[in-house]
Amino acid sequence: MAERDLLIGLDAGTSVVKAVAFDLEGSQVADxxxxxxxxxxxxxxxxxxxxxxxxxxxxxxRRLGETVPDLARRCAALAVTAQGDGxxxxxxxNRPVDDAWLWLDARxxxxxxxxxxxAEDRARFEATGTGLNTCQQGAxxxxxxxxxxxxxxxxxxxxxxxxxxxLNLTGVRATDPSEASFTFGNFRSRAYxxxxxxALGLGHRRHLLPEILDGTEVxxxxxxxxxRETGLLPGTPVSLGYVDMMMTALGAGVHxxxxxxxxxxxGSTGVHMRAVTAExxxxxxxxxxxxxxxxxxxxxxxxxxxxxxxxxxxxxLRVAADLMSETGxxxxxxxxxxxxxxxxxxxxxxxxxxxxxxxxxGERGPFVNAEARAGFIGLSAHHRFADMMxxxxxxxxxxxxxxxxxxxxxxxxxxxxGGAARSAALRGVLAAATEAPVRVSAREEAGAAGAAMMxxxxxxxxxxxxxxxxxxxxxxxxxxxxxxPELVETYRGIFxxxxxxxxxxxxxxxxxAEARAGANAPARGEATDMTLDATARAT
Length: 539
Hints:
Elements: E1 6-12, E2 16-23, E3 28-35, E4 38-41, E5 46-48, H1 50-67, H2 71-74, E6 75-82, E7 88-90, E8 100-101, H3 109-116, H4 121-128, H5 137-147, H6 149-154, E9 157-159, H7 161-170, E10 174-175, H8 177-184, E11 185-186, E12 191-192, H9 194-199, E13 211-212, E14 220-221, H10 224-230, E15 237-240, H11 244-252, E16 261-266, E17 270-277, E18 290-293, E19 299-306, H12 310-326, H13 340-345, E20 353-355, E21 375-377, H14 385-406, E22 413-417, H15 424-434, E23 438-440, H16 446-458, H17 465-472, H18 485-504, H19 506-518, E24 527-530, H20 535-538
């Protein structure tokens, strides 16, 4: 029999499902992926098929098996992570109740406003460390309970995406400490919290919450049926990873034992994280952000997340590609990615302010407003596309600064991951905006690696997560890139205007939302098939 010398990390994102094989020393051996799709509706819906997601995950694992010789017999363990938040309802027969409500779904906005203004919301925030927003399962279930109770009536368990895949892999209904505690629990105890559940008005739905498992301590065997679907051997240990934000940050270096280090993922969304002890958590007065448990005893990550990061760059490139195509010379926006640094070099730093709230779901970090929208401030007749592109990229840097400010201050060192971080110009903007040197991890698939690291600890390949990090993460961090002092001064000077503008704009956003609602909207229920077109993939 072949030596069991490989670990598999399965990472099911919103737009692509990846299966990645690593050796026990952390080197990536091979990967396979399958595109994933979701549907959006005029009412703010963003939904995904549970069955199709499982089929895509199975296909990715089979494709990996076609690439790696004797993968099934060499696989020591499989770990799964996936897109966070959202609501994946399953009935008594472990079948989907309906399509999953994704983290992109905005239908719960009225319920979020109602709950966030309630007297119990601060107590909920103090327990979870997490601001209420439309992405979260708690808000979505509360909205379902008030408006679509039949969905919850038909359900026997409420899962997240990775939990649904774990159920299909092992037959076990469970969730992990990270999503459980920031949605319905307490980050200090890593358990469900009655105060939180009551604040959401879901005490009568508590039976829908699954068991909490830590995938560094517990595994379950791959079932016979799942083995047939995936091409792996029945009985292969399966580890339930933490939410993808945590796994990606873990694989990219959010925690390596260096004080003051932080990690930003610049992908479709922007995720800004710092690893601290529970006692060091800074809970802001606005009640925003996340606190996500880490798979390290006593450690959590404090998080602020932008709904859109590279998606803003995608938008700008699409505008350029559309205009160029209108001249009779067809262009695809992905073909323009390589021009970004050149446009940046030709434009004056800090000339424009751009708020990167391009998502139709608004913004969630460091403030929550489902009606927030992107916009430029400072345009004049001499500005050209290069200036606008620079403004968009600088908007991502100022958004990162905004998020770290809400967590208590700038990091001493910023680790970067996500495809957009390959841009030297973007790295320079982020370094200057956060006033910290940046380091880029050479890890190609940080989310899958983070999950595989949990499996490595669970099967005893490493005595603890810190030992695994020392081998899998620290050696892959690149050299520090210091911020440009002149850019630091530029962004320090315009940041107060950036914040003042976004604090002033909510009434404008509200008026625009009213106008959108009343003007020739598509018929209710009309849906569009979508994938996320992140610059991270284009690069």
